[in-house]
Amino acid sequence: MTTVELLIYIIFRGLAIGILVSAPMGPIGVLCIQRTLNKGRRSGLATGIGASLSDLFYAMFTGFGLSIVVDFIENNQAPLQIAGSLVLTCFGIYLYRQNPARNIRKRLNQKSSFTQDFASSFLLTLSNPLILLLLIGLFARLNFFLPEMKVGHYILGYVSIILGAFIWWLTITFIIDKVRSRFNLRSLWLINRGIGIIIIIMSLVGVGTGFYEYFIK
Question: Where are the transmembrane segments (predicted)?
Answer without folding.
Answer: 6-33, 45-66, 78-97, 118-142, 154-176, 188-212
